[in-house]
Amino acid sequence: MGRVGVNRKLKREKAPKIWPIHRKEFVFTFKPVPGPHPIERSIPLALILRDMLNLAKFAREANKIVKKGMIKVDGRVIREPRFPVGMMDVLSIPEIESVYRVFPSKKGLMLHPIGKEEENVKLCRIESKRLVKGGRIQLTLHDGRNILLPAEEDGKDYTRLDVLKIQLPDQTILDKFTLKEGSFVMVFEGKHRGEFGRLKAIEEVGSKLKSLVTIEKESGEQIQTILEYVFVLGEERPSISIPEVKS
């Protein structure tokens, strides 16, 4: 007879490399539930509390903190310890008055402390748009959320890979940033993950997502990656606070 039910265990040696855990200290770790981010680009909430913020020493303690409703993600109370937290998510801990935004880094993901003025703001990349019932345009964003545009909008101003600045938790669109030369961007995947700069050039090839882009960092150094790995943060300067990156 086959296995019955869902396997909630994940061996540490098979966990994504971006997770900040010791691979051989113990056998198992948290296995994230299906959510807004894929497993290779997210970290379970309880693991963040225990291994990144050091708010718990053991998994049991981290689980209790989450289940008591003490943690918010994007302005919403999360009670699932294995909830996947990913890039640009806003993590709030009212009990200790701490707010963090998740950014990519060389090692995977990092928590960047932000002020209260940024707690209800999030940047989301448009991954696709489609016509839905009623003739309205629906935008699908990188964190799994969908935004339905007003009936009077035809969606022509919204393009895949553009980034929306939205209000949390009601998803009101505050601003839009187009992926173009001159935009301030960050790299969230590949060997230059976690680096920031101004987009200097785009060399288009057959597949738009695989187009080669050149980015100039604040130091003047130029790096190259593919368009798919680029995330717009603002027009000429970032529209949100960003972590300092050591050159």
Description of the structure:
The chain is mainly β. The protein folds into three domains: 9-118, RNA-binding S4 domain (Structural Genomics Hypothetical 15.5 Kd Protein In mrcA-pckA Intergenic Region, Chain A, Roll); 121-176, Ribosomal protein S4, central domain (OB fold (Dihydrolipoamide Acetyltransferase, E2P)); 184-234, SH3 type barrels. It is 7% helix and 37% strand. The chain contains two helices and 19 strands. The protein has helices at residues 45-52, 59-67; strands at residues 9-11, 28-30, 42-44, 72-73, 76-77, 84-86, 90-93, 98-105, 108-113, 121-132, 136-141, 146-148, 163-167, 173-177, 184-187, 196-203, 212-216, 222-226, 230-234. The strands form five sheets. It has a five-stranded antiparallel sheet, with no helix packed on it. Helix 1 (45-52) packs across helix 2. The radius of gyration is 19 Å and the shape is globular. The termini are far apart. The mean pLDDT is 91.
Topology:
Blueprint: E1 9-11, E2 28-30, E3 42-44, H1 45-52, H2 59-67, E4 72-73, E5 76-77, E6 84-86, E7 90-93, E8 98-105, E9 108-113, E10 121-132, E11 136-141, E12 146-148, E13 163-167, E14 173-177, E15 184-187, E16 196-203, E17 212-216, E18 222-226, E19 230-234
Antiparallel strand pairs: 1-2, 3-6, 4-5, 4-7, 7-8, 8-9, 10-11, 10-13, 11-12, 13-14, 15-16, 15-19, 16-17, 17-18
